[in-house]
Amino acid sequence: MSYVQIIRRRWRTLVTVALGVLALAAALTLLSTPQYTSSTQFFVSTADSANSSQLAQGGTFTQQRVKSYSELLKAPKLLDPVIAESGVDLTPTTLGEKITATTPPDTVLIDVTVTDASPTRARDIAAGIAEVFPTVVSDLEKVSPSADSPVKVTLLRDPTVAESPVSPNPVRNIALGLVLGLLLGFGAAVLKHLMDTKLRSKEDVEVLTDAVLLGGIPFDPDADKHPLIIQADPHAGRAEAFRALRTNLQFIDAANHPRVMVVTSAIANEGKTSTTANLALAMAESGASVCVVEGDLRRPRLLNYLGLPGSVGLTDVLIGRYTVDDVLQPFGDQSLSVLGAGASPPNPSELLGSTAMRTLLDDLRRRFDYVLVDGAPILPVTDSSVLTRLADGALVVAGSGIVNKTQFEDALETLETVNGTVLGVVLNRMPRESRGGYYDYRYEYRPQAEGGRRSRRLQDEARPRRDTIGTRR
Fold this sequence. Notes:
It is a single chain. This protein is α/β, with parallel strands linked by helices. The chain is 44% helix and 20% strand. It is built from 19 helices and 14 strands. The strands form 3 sheets. Strands 5-12-11-6-10-7-9-8 form an 8-stranded mixed beta sheet, with helices on both faces. A 4-stranded antiparallel beta sheet has the order 2-3-1-4. Strands 13-14 form a two-stranded antiparallel sheet.
């Protein structure tokens, strides 16, 4: 996945971190005490420079000495007289922290800057240094009490009171905070992406498997309340996603078109049962005859979604208690029949892999255009693995943000181990940012003003639904 894709997916993390750093920079700027500076400058020369030779030698001498003089500016021998001269109530150590001395390369200049919260006190300290420093240097360089100092320090610039603070600098701090925030936000986004083990997008599926991605079902927060979206809101984007899945299934292996399919998932709660029910409804509304089998004998939920009774069903047929005609239940006005799970058996996997189950599926294949079996999750139990060998293949539902990438890979490897055919993958609960937004096309029939004829008007609402996503139509 490219960095652009990571930013598109994790832009919230990037923005959150960037805004946090920016807010921190702004807070520190507001809370920082303003600092003012006052500067002075000294010129160091030799006192005896009668000819050019002595002048050259003196210049070399002073260039070597100015570095030592810079360090002298923080020594107690200088700071104690400065405190006395300026009248500030500071210790030599504290005062030394406020003084900065620099020597421009290849010069005999010393620049001294004093930083303090008070512009007046900064000027007073700098004035004290201007007064004391030449004298201290002269005393140190005397070879004897009676001889003159060979070094002369001249004051070039008198200190002044600053009119504006040098720090904090709001513009600079905010700019640096923004740049640092964006860098940290990008790093956090990449780190979060690398540490995210959940399967979330089409790109994740394509990286993990060569199986065909047959469709993506958008996330619907109300799916638990309205699991049968094909019936609840036929024109919703999520309903269109199931119709697109139905269409894509028609192009799988045209020579040996699969008709008996197991719908399963790696783990529970990925949406396999609701996918089975809605796909069956989409197939039935296209005119095909469809039979849905509740093949999850451990936690059957299909009949609850469809609102049908489930006292008898698949297990009763497999043990010969009833015939399939006795337990098949019609659903709706279309050619859709439902075979419930029946009573929970003690040996589901053995029962589903039995010769009776193979015979039943062959019988249903002759009766219906499509047979969809809602199987149990693959990893917890072997039921769906057994069923897949008896069917034409399996549709693996992957719940975005629910299943781990490792679990998804393990499920596909399990089917491969038993020589089961994976017809394709259905990515369920796709987040909004993964694929843009679905657009609803709603049809209304209104009478024309003349002739009493009725016309169909196509309304493109040109807005994404609040709870659906997908490809624009």
